[in-house]
Amino acid sequence: MSGGKKPTVLIWIGAAILFLIIGSIGGYFLTSYLTNPYRTLEAFPVEKYLDDYRSLAGSRFKGELRVEADLGWKEGVGRLMLFSTPSDSRPVAVMIPAGLASIYFTKGQTYLAELEVKEGGLIYANSCQKE
Amino acid sequence: MPIRAKKNNLWCSTLLVGMIGISCAVAQTNSASNNSSDAQEDAAKSAPTTSTAENQITPASPNTAGSATASNAGNAGENSTGTTLDYLFNHKPQEGSMAAQAAQAQKQAATKEQASEALGGRNISDGQVRARFERYLGTPEVPAEQAKAYADGANQIVAMLRQGQTFAAWKSLYQLATYRSIDLGMSAELANRIESVWNTDKTSDKIDNKNSSLQQQIETDSRNADIMSRTNRQKDLDVSRQESSRNPKKRSNNGGVPQEGDVDGSNSTPDVSGMEGKLELTQTYLNSLEAKAKIKLNELRAQKLLDSAKSDFAGYINTLASNHHYEHVILAAEFYRRIFDEDTYPVAIANQVNAALEQQREVQSTIDVFNYNLDKNNVVAATDRLQEAFLAGEFEPSVSAVKRTAKDRVAAYLAKIDKLANLIEAKDFGNLSTTLDEMKQLAADFDTTKPVAIVNAVKLESRMRMGKAKLAAQKGDLKTAMDEFQAAAEAWPDNPDLQSNANNFFNSQDAQNQSTGDFDRYVQEGNYRAIFDKQLMFAPAIHGDAKREQQLKDAIEKTQKAEVAIQKAGVMSANGDVYGAWETINLAVKDLPDDNKLNSMLGNLAGKGAEFVAAVNHAQEAEARNDFGYSLTWYAIAQRYYPASTIANQAIDRISKKILGMN
């Protein structure tokens, strides 16, 4: 009954390939998740910030920021920029500290950042990386 | 109260009531008159030596009284009252009434001319022609079938004439005359004229007959003369032969001169035998000459009759042409050729026929354009065309056939034009605008620009006069004020400001003090709008006071800026730029924070552009709290709503620099 065994082998081979593919994809996402430094942070609540920034003061958030405009740069201080988030198209002003000056921001591109609301409602990006 | 003072009161009251129709003004002026009358008495008492009989009855006395009162009481109000009365007493209607009437008539004529020019519509200046045109508009139309039958009849007559059927064509003229409403009896008149020419022909025939009989007579006379001549010659020969036979010596003919042998006296008497026949021959010859002369005269007479008939007929054609009876010009010209048996027309008649044909075409095409314009509701253009057609050929069948309903629309339009002209002449601008609206409904192509411009010009003139009156009154120059006020009232009798201003103008007692007090109060309140509105009143009152003048200048400049902002915002809002309009007013409010007009407009616009306004407000409040980051975000949001926002852009730049420490 060699003819009856052949399909069973093929099924096993197919299942193994499928498992490998799924495992690879899952592994990729798992690795991405585990290597994401902002995975433990909550997304920045733009609506809440615009209602009253004081309730967010001192807290840190994860922000998926789309570059809208560059408002200015000063050495030793940083770069002041306008970003929008996927959840709210209204722009928010974010200060990119001088330590993150090596990042080149291009209008329309999206970046991930750890955000912190400081005094006067100014949002600081403690860290930032291109998504 | 003295009788004179009572009269003055009455006079003053009557003038003001008649001129302005304002009871308050009358009351005030009456009061002023009372003061003045009292002052007159004072003046008379204080200076009895200067009060002459003339002064008592002439209007100069109130002026003197006013001065006396001013010097006695030191009251500026009474002084100005005296000036008022001076004006009233020195400008009685009896004075210069002829000149005033002439000036008034001239003004009315000018206004009428102006109204007529502005409204148009009346292209017929001749009164009689206009009356005929208006009658034409009121008459029913000639049925189209009838007009066609008439035109066919006329064409048939021309065809008959060209075929040589002159008499039949002549008879057809009487048939054509039965279309009374179109023909107006012209065909019957033409037939009569032709008959008259034919009667002239009969006279010519009689002359020809006479000439024939004269010719026969000449021939008879000639024959008789020949016979007589031969008979006489024969007689002469016979006599000569007899004499030769009796006296051969005397054979030679010496012309009857007595010769030598005749001295015996046997032949002393001359022989006259045969002379009788010679005289008869001479008479016959003379008769022949006379007959020839008569023939010549008759021929001249006949030619003259023919020339006269031709000339008369040509004159008749000319009359038809000048009276625009073009159809009959053509008919008459054809008859001319036939009855005078000519191949072509004389040049003058040919020209008239050509002109008649041209005019017929012109009138027909004008009527076509008239109908087209009327269909499009362009009644103004249609009326112009109908008037043109009427002037060019009022008796043309195409003009007579215009439908009565169409003519009614033209008549209604012209009636409305007359009404508008009357309203403009009467300066009844209230009803004028309503009638202009009605006119636009009636005639889509009616241009209201000119009448509206006239109305606006007159209103402006009235207002400017009112302003001058106001200024003069505030300066205490009540004579000029009264003149200007009257001129303002004449320019626009229904001017609503007449009533409201009349009370204030002539109550100039301590007006200056009151004005200064009001001005200071408004400055203190920051009510620059009120100062701006009353600048004409304040300007003369604070004249010479440098501080107040500067305050007035500032107030006017600020309010003018606000007005400019309001205008600009209005335009922006109308163009859909509500955010820009709000921002414009918002910026203006900073200069004039208590201005009701600005704040009201700001409130209205804020409702329309709520998102942008809310963003700017959040941003401004945060900036005020030094929450610069939060403020910057809100300004950025405001900029997102309105990228051209001056407030947002300036603030973003300003706050960014502040945050980055670049200031």
Euclidean distance between termini CA atoms of chain B = 83 Å
Estimated helix fraction of chain B: over 70%
The secondary-structure class of chain B comes to: mainly alpha
| Number of distinct helices of chain B | 30
CATH homologous group name of the largest domain in chain A = Nucleic acid-binding proteins
Name of the level-1 CATH class of the largest domain in chain A: Mainly Beta
- The level of helicity of chain A is 25-40%
Number of domains of chain A: 2
Number of DSSP strand runs of chain A: 6
Distance between the ends of chain A: 56 Å
CATH architecture of the largest domain in chain A: Beta Barrel
Detailed description of the structure:
The complex is a heterodimer of chains A (131) and B (663). In chain A, 22% of the residues are buried. Chain A has 2 helices and 6 strands, in the order αβαβββββ. A 5-stranded mixed β-barrel of chain A has the order 2-3-4-6-5. In chain A, strand 5 and strand 6 (123-130) form a beta hairpin. Chain A starts with a helix and ends with a strand. Chain A folds into 2 domains: 1-35; 42-130, Nucleic acid-binding proteins (OB fold (Dihydrolipoamide Acetyltransferase, E2P)). Chain A is an alpha/beta fold and 131 residues long. Chain B is mostly helical. Among the domains of chain B are: 107-141 and 359-447, no CATH class; 167-240 and 274-343. Chain B is 80% helix and 0% strand. Chain B contains 30 helices and no strands. Chain B has helices at residues 3-19, 23-46, 53-57, 60-73, 76-90, 97-119, 127-138, 144-162, 166-176, 180-183, 186-246, 275-322, 326-339, 347-375, 379-393, 397-400, 404-426, 429-442, 449-475, 478-491, 496-505, 511-525, 528-533, 535-541, 546-574, 578-591, 596-608, 610-624, 628-641, 646-660. The longest helix of chain B has 61 residues, at 186-246. Chain B is elongated, with a radius of gyration of 52 Å. The two termini of chain B are 83 Å apart. The relative contact order of chain B is 0.06. Residues 1-81 and 260-266 of chain B have low confidence and may be disordered. Classes of the chains: A alpha/beta (131), B mainly alpha (663). At the A-B interface, strand 2, strand 3 and strand 4 of A face helix 29 and helix 30 of B.
